[in-house]
Structure formats: C-alpha cells, structure tokens
Design goal:
- This protein is mainly α.
- It has one domain (14-232).
- It is 72% helix and 0% strand.
- The chain is built from 13 helices and no strands.
- It is globular.
Length: 236
C-alpha cells in the first residue's frame, strides 16, 4: 500500500462517528468505565503506599496496567477491537509482574539490562505459591489460578490469530466501524480481566499493604465480597 492509499483509507473512516456510536451504548460505556475505574483505584493505593524511600521501581508496572486500561476504552471507542485484546492481556501481565518485581529489585534490574531474561506468568504464580504467605490457601477462595489460566489462553488465542476472525469485523482499514456483539464480548472480558486482577492483588500486594489503603478505597474494593471470603483474606 502506498502512503497516498494509506492516507486515503485512514481519512475515509469517520472516527468521530465511531466514538459517537460507542458513547451511545450507555450501559456498555458504564461497564467499561467501571472496570477502568477499579484499576485506577488499585493503582492509586499502590502509588500512595508502596513508595519506600525513593518509590518502589516496580510501580512502573502499575502505571503500565492503568495505561492499558485507558487503551481498552480508546480502542473500543474507535472500533479497533483486535488491539483491545492485547491491552486486556497487558493489564493482567503487568499486574502479575508488579506483584513479583516489587520484592525482587535485583531481578527487575536484570529484566531491564538483559533482553534474554524472562519470567512467565506461571513462574510468578509458582513463586507466590512457595513464598507468599497464605497465597496457596487464599487464592482458592478467590480462584486466582482458576480464573487466570483459561482467560489468558482465550486472550492469547485472539491476539495470536489462533482463532481467525475473532474481534475483527472489517476486511480493510476503510471498513473500520462499530460492531455491537463484539463490544459486548469485550465488556464481558474486561470485567473478567479486572476480577482476575482483584483476586491476584487480594492474595499478594494488596493484602500486604491493605492496612495502609484509604478507608474509602478499602470499602470500595471489598464491596459485595462475601463475608467468609473477607474474613479468610483478613480484609474485614
């Protein structure tokens, strides 16, 4: 494709109309906004409490998590749904990385310096099972692993094209336009994504720093949680 044809294709899409159509689905916008707000709520609490003397360098993953949440809303509004899947997976991955690297500054330095060094989501979960107090028992209460693995596989299949046609509703740039059934699926997956982040944080960093969170944030984060789960996680 020449630059002229690319320019013509991009300018032929009525991006403002796409956004207006998205905003018109008020119930879905509310669900997506609520999911993004919950990520922001976690992010602000960690920014306020996990500072250390100079700020925990692993907070960069929390900032990345929140930006990915912003991109979910942005790509939904523009009807660039395939890209939304990548942002959703980034939210979960960066949440996982934060829970590990906040207590592994040496390994974080290695991650930055050495492009060959890598830690997988399974490595992080295994670390928590072995070294995070109460994780093995607590995660069963909120189903960290039970939620994480099937959801992660589903998002990866969409991202890598293992399921061709998923979250793709156009055959050319010029055909980029809203699709309500896809948007509904994304709202569902965003909510599931945030439930996974919730479960992970409740069993790891969020549990450790819970007493330092604001009263308003604590109330909002555990609203609707069954009493026996709150008691088991020592959040009551």
């Amino acid at each position: 494709m020449s630059a002229a044809k690319l320019t013509a294709a991009l300018t032929s899409v009525d991006w403002n109309a796409n956004i207006a159509t998205f905003i018109g689905h008020a119930d879905l916008v509310e669900r997506i906004a609520a999911s993004g707000f919950r990520l922001a709520l976690w992010a602000r609490q960690f920014e306020n409490t996990d500072k250390g003397e100079h700020g925990n360098p692993a907070l960069c993953f929390i900032r990345e998590m929140q930006i990915a949440g912003h991109l979910v809303a942005t790509t939904c509004a523009l009807a660039c749904y395939k890209s939304t899947a990548s942002s959703l997976r980034t939210i979960v991955e960066t949440a996982l990385y934060y829970t590990y690297f906040r207590v592994h500054p040496v390994e974080l330095g290695t991650l930055v310096r050495n492009p060959k060094w890598f830690i997988s989501k399974d490595d992080v979960i295994e670390y928590h099972k072995l070294h995070t107090e109460g994780f093995a028992e607590n995660q069963q209460k909120v189903q960290v692993v039970g939620q994480l693995n099937p959801w992660y596989s589903r998002m990866s299949a969409i991202i890598h094209g293992q399921l061709p046609g998923q979250w793709v509703t156009q055959v050319s740039i010029a055909d980029t336009k809203p699709d309500l059934p896809t948007l509904e699926k994304i709202a569902d997956e965003f909510e599931q994504c945030v439930r996974i982040v919730d479960a992970l944080f409740f069993c790891t960093a969020g549990n450790e720093l819970w007493d330092y969170f604001s009263h308003v944030a604590r109330h909002a984060l555990i609203k609707g949680m069954p009493g026996d789960v709150k008691a088991a996680l020592k959040l009551a």
